[in-house]
Amino acid sequence: xxxxxxxxxxxxxxxxxxxGVSALAHADTTTxxxxxxxxxxxxxxxxxxxxxxxxxxxxxxxTAKDKSAFLFGNSFxxxxxxxxxxxxxxxxxxxxxxxxxxxxxxxxxTKYYHYGKAKVGKGGYVTRYASAGHWAYATAKGxxxxxxxxxxx
Length: 153
What we know:
globular, mainly beta, Surface layer protein A domain-containing protein, 4-stranded antiparallel β-sheet, 44% strand, signal
């Protein structure tokens, strides 16, 4: 039994390595307060570094490695201080051949109707809406630059 389990785990690891898909994801989280614009965006490179953004605050955001938690082989961040009303988490994963990736934009707002929007390359936008107190999860898949957006009303 033990030998079979080790063989299965080893073959699974080889399969993931050969597929070109990254098994790790690092999320970056921005706290949305009344001092932030009611909508914004970030463009991410393959390392989840923000390379363009609608606000200097987003460009100066620390990397996910600085404030993330490790869970099941993935790193995720979640910060929501009392003075804020929203948490926006964005990241790229499933990176593969020919610049293929998934872009995620997940937004939670405690006070306002809101959305998360994602896009990759020349593909279409994927927008998900949620009422106050719920998460809006948007995931886009494709080739090219990864875009993540948030907004509330």
